[in-house]
Write a structure and sequence with these properties.
4 copies of one chain form a homotetramer. Chain A is an all-alpha fold. Chain A has 2 domains: 46 residues, Arc Repressor Mutant, subunit A (Orthogonal Bundle), CATH 1.10.10; 141 residues, Tetracycline Repressor, domain 2 (Orthogonal Bundle). Chain A contains 9 helices and no strands. Chain A is elongated, with a radius of gyration of 21 Å. The C terminus of chain A is likely disordered. Chains in contact: A-B, C-D. At the A-B interface, α4, α7, α8 and α9 of A face α4, α7, α8 and α9 of B. The structure holds a DNA duplex. Chains A, B, C, D: Pfam families: TetR_C_24 (PF17932), TetR_N (PF00440). Chains A, B, C, D: It comes from Blastococcus colisei. Chains A, B, C, D: Keywords: DNA-binding, Repressor, Transcription, Transcription regulation.
Chain lengths: 233, 233, 233, 233
DNA sequence: GATGAATGAGGTTTCATTCAT
DNA sequence: GATGAATGAAACCTCATTCAT
């Protein structure tokens, strides 16, 4: 797997061969992703979509069988990304934390580059059929399990602080990344790759063992630590 | 402001005086928050809500004027929390990073304790009227600005690594926290306070200056740093 | 079972208790039965029905959950009739042919008195869900099997001509009766009971052993018989 | 008219001359008849038909001008049969009851051999234009009138029981025959001709004068007669 | 306070039909 | 002859909301 995720045309096509209608498919799915991002899946009507692509409402049904197909097609894009990510990363010969960092970087880059897609993936999953939700959830769970394992491996290797709770740590770094679609704008200052680097770095810093030396007070003055008792009830 | 956020009955009441119907208001708003969380605001019908509280659909209109009122009431709960958080934290005499850590801890505790509320706040904001959205966004922006300022202050004080981008850092820690509603379950192993402590700690560790000493390998093995060139195109 | 089939209000009611909306239910189902009879189920729109009962299209959904419910409710009327008919007739102490005649008479009377219902039952069954179709078909088959058995019993008792094929005979008499809805009009000359008597009599005459005596020419001039060779290919 | 009805290619053709596309016409009309039989005219879409014949929906319009054309073409097949039947039977020199038996036999044979056609003819007539319906109804009425006249002639000749109501008798025998499409299957035990013979025989037996002699108990034990008072309320 | 009938706008979907290619 | 994109009307259905009781 390369650093960038760019499957050719990710959207479903009905006729298998090359087809001059492929542009329409892409146009429809891309517009749908944008509208779902802007208003939410349920608040986007097919009338909205038809208007945006310049078709009649009914004409959309040449390209889809149901509105849910649109959402599913979009979530499949993300789903397939995670599947590839799961397969790809183990091929490389890296330390656990390096692997983790690599996965998070790729994930974050994808989350920014395809923020419409990840927004649909996370916000409107409940609009998919039970069956389809389960598929998505299974892959998501496998992905999270892989990340947790890397954290544990990193702890065994001394790369990750022993007091880190792998579950919490993974929830935390995923939150950072999956939150990107809430604020990212393509016209913004930073590219998806730059954002990915920043977040991968922040994640690694959060996980690494706490420095205990004295030449610098970074570690000492941390105003509280994981051992700190929780705030008063 | 105390460590825990617990405004008495946060839900709106139409008749201003005390009223034996207050329970109904609370029941309706709490049930709505749960349903919105489970299915999304738009996919939850007032019939669903009426069924869940044991009323007829029409009877709900004794308690609300519109469906949006429910969503607004719920988001107001979060909104008011942020307003209080903004006011409260400066009263304390703490270093910037300590203040930041305190805000994040309170925020995270709220995010877990009221995960239904924060989910509605972030996922269904686009269903509010323009006017109401703007109000919410303004407060959110003020909150984020305050956090960024604390990061910058921390950098000035040497508590926060100089190479941290305040915008990215704040987006990152907010993502961690606002993601809590995606995985938190009240019946889970950790209490909101414990979760809050963990995330506050992780955040602080991510922000603090990188340790450069040699007595310990925490710093050396960081597999990449913020200066690392982004992944290849 | 009495000779006439008159269950009080045959149409479904949602709230179980007595209800002032029962009239509406009856009005809607009766109008639906009439419209389905006139134009067929598929060619009758809910708009047609709404217009006919003076409601808005959407208001019909207070009384039904789907258009198919209307068809199902109507076919249930016939379905229940056949179930009662199956149970009821054996209680009487009659000869096989007398029982058969009694069932056919009751069936024919029902077919005329409720010609809207039987028309829907037979013409639009394919619009019901698979599940519901199967239910109906099972009962229909049980009913036909009972009639065939009565024909066979009649043959054993010498009441029915031995050369009669029970399957064909039952198909024939059912055809007679189920065809009633094609021509019956309530304002016509004959009442359902009169029609039922005529058809029961015709059926019995068709089944009885052929007379072979000579005092009368009834038997002799039958222009062909079951033994006649089929028409030329 | 021969005993079997087999007009060469009954389906309409647009280009009047002979044409290698005739097979397509036949295929389309026959498939349509089958589909209409299985699901009803209104519930069969042109997409269903196109799929079944291996064409695209739009391509059907090379062969038809409208969906109704298909139904009309099919009903015309039956319509023409009845016209031929009306013309043909009087040429023969037979007694009234023999003529009647002959017509019913031919009708029944047609009804079985072309059960798809007769099903469409009777079930979906209401989907034709007013004009076309009227044409069909006129022919049907003429046909029924001819049958009634034969019954009356048979009564005058003493071949048919005097107490038979010609209208009812004709409705009855037509019901038997027109019901055939509800149960006939080509792979069944009996051929259309055998079925036709059975039903013609049953009809004749039902109509003939009741035997009043004593050598045999066929007549005496008829459990009720046309004079019997109708069943109790 | 509560009901439930009724509304009316708008949602997703189907489908016969047209037409440029 | 055949395609398949596109249309537009109309279908079934949902639902927030109103209101007389």
């Amino acid at each position: 797997m390369t650093a960038s995720y760019a499957a050719g045309t990710p959207w479903p096509r009905r006729p298998p061969g090359p087809n001059r209608a492929d542009e329409r498919y892409a146009q429809i799915y891309e517009t749908a992703a944008r509208l779902f991002y802007e208003k939410g899946y349920s608040r986007t009507s097919l009338q909205d979509l038809a208007n945006a692509v310049g078709l009649q409402k009914g004409s959309l049904y040449h390209y889809i069988d149901s509105k849910e197909d649109l959402l599913f097609g979009i979530t499949e894009y993300a789903h397939n990304f995670f599947l590839q990510l799961l397969e790809g990363v183990d091929e490389e010969n890296l330390s656990p934390l390096a692997k983790l960092e690599r996965m998070l970087r790729l994930h974050a880059e994808f989350a920014a580059a395809h923020f419409h897609v990840t927004a649909a993936f996370y916000n409107d999953r409940s609009a998919l059929s039970e069956e389809r939700q389960e598929r998505v959830v299974q892959t998501r769970d496998a992905y999270e399990a892989r990340l947790r394992q890397l954290v544990r491996d990193g702890q065994a290797a001394g790369e990750v602080a022993a007091d880190v709770d792998p579950r919490m740590a993974v929830f935390g770094v995923l939150g950072m990344i999956n939150w990107i679609n809430q604020w990212y704008r393509p016209e913004g200052r930073m590219s998806p790759q730059e954002i990915a680097t920043v977040f991968a770095t922040l994640s690694v810093r959060a996980l690494r063992p706490v420095c205990t030396c004295t030449d610098g007070d970074g570690g000492r003055q941390a105003p509280s630590s994981a051992k700190a008792s929780p705030a008063a009830p």
